[in-house]
Amino acid sequence: MSTPPSERLRELGIELPPPPSPKGAYAPVARSGTLAWVSGQIVFENGAVVRPGTVDHDVPAPVASELVRRATLQALSALSAELGGLESIRRAVRLGVFVAVSEGFHREHEVANGGSELLLAVFGEAGRASRTTVGVAGLPLRAPVEVELLVETA
Amino acid sequence: MSTPPSERLRELGIELPPPPSPKGAYAPVARSGTLAWVSGQIVFENGAVVRPGTVDHDVPAPVASELVRRATLQALSALSAELGGLESIRRAVRLGVFVAVSEGFHREHEVANGGSELLLAVFGEAGRASRTTVGVAGLPLRAPVEVELLVETA
Amino acid sequence: MSTPPSERLRELGIELPPPPSPKGAYAPVARSGTLAWVSGQIVFENGAVVRPGTVDHDVPAPVASELVRRATLQALSALSAELGGLESIRRAVRLGVFVAVSEGFHREHEVANGGSELLLAVFGEAGRASRTTVGVAGLPLRAPVEVELLVETA
């Protein structure tokens, strides 16, 4: 990582959203040693889930991909709040992407790319995480996508 | 953790269930360094899945939440068998909750709280794990919920 | 592990498939310390998903179990490419199995055994990982099963 992630975000014109507030008795981020697990993120705006429904019946795949990008950005915001910035992140280790699918939709991997590409843009090659993407029957509050992230810190 | 978890369980009037037996060629718990991964837990009683079906068509959400609590307790029982007690657990790191959902049910996060609240009750703030909760199309043997747990040990 | 895994594979008459190519901007394997996370694997042959559909409507359970075995073998191939062989693998830590289920199918655990049994055959008791198995609404490109693997390395 030649360019620090916070500077990279500025160059990309991206502002971190406010850190997410858990919907229950859990932590936004839990750390053990040099690993930090971010809780599953769904995208909220003004207290409501953005674009509720399934992909692609209610939410077109490109919109869902953009929501995966935003959920991943929320995960970075949670990490920034926990770590006091993004500079101590050494690499993205695992991205988990859950897509609430309509019958017949099978391009979950394209939807997930919104998150993978954000990580690459912010962290360079250190953002190239492993990834698991699946289609699910439903998500909390009818969210169309949910993203979890594991990173390594200094 | 001022109070040891085993004492906390006694205070709460909770007895650990018998450790679960894997439904296949896998381990109840696998450790690496100071991390211990517990296999996905579904709740059994007298050799049968408790309250088979989906939430909330067959199983009301509050019942499902109680089953998440019991599945999390089973995970602690598996850890206790592996570690010779719960005292070496430093913190709960990640709770994964899968809810077999009926069409139109979108309160998976409320169902998951049964597990998160148990961890807080037993471990105090060290029980505040990260969490990922999703709705799934089905679970082994028609279980309504499945719970996996990652903890840090001494 | 008395017998090295590569020799065990030869004894079993198993050849590692070519390492998988990611379907997006992610890494086949991401490492942190002595842990290595393999991305979710679906089984391809000649550029197409093998036996697309759901279990057991389109794909009988025993066939799906064999596909879990092959997906797990692909995960080992990804690890072998990353680590320069399988000899530095100390143990399998966690196997995640996602089964795209038809309505009424609830034997995901039997389907998952194809992966667990392969790990035992290749690594002996060091292959006995923890496991989480769930049924999902869909998988990328209509794959019937997806497998993710976490291992500990030297």
Oligomer: homotrimer
Estimate the global geometry of chain A from the Cα principal axes. Answer: globular
State the share of residues found in helices of chain A, binned by percent.
25-40%
CATH architecture of chain A: 2-Layer Sandwich
In CATH terms, what is the fold-level topology of chain A? 60s Ribosomal Protein L30, Chain: A
How many extended strands of chain A?
Answer: 7
Order of helices and strands of chain A: HEEEEHEHEE
| Poorly predicted residue ranges of chain A | none
Quote the distance from N terminus to C terminus of chain A: 13 Å
The proportion of residues in beta strands of chain A is 25-35%
Total number of distinct structural domains of chain A: 1
Across the major sheet of chain A, the strand order is 1-2-7-5-6
Which terms summarize this structure?
154 residues, alpha+beta, 60s Ribosomal Protein L30, Chain: A, 7 strands, 31% helix
